[in-house]
Amino acid sequence: MAADEKSKAKTEQAKGKVKEAAGRTVGNERLTAEGRAEQTKGDARQAKEKVKDAFKH
Question: What pTM value is reported for the model?
Answer without folding.
Answer: 0.83
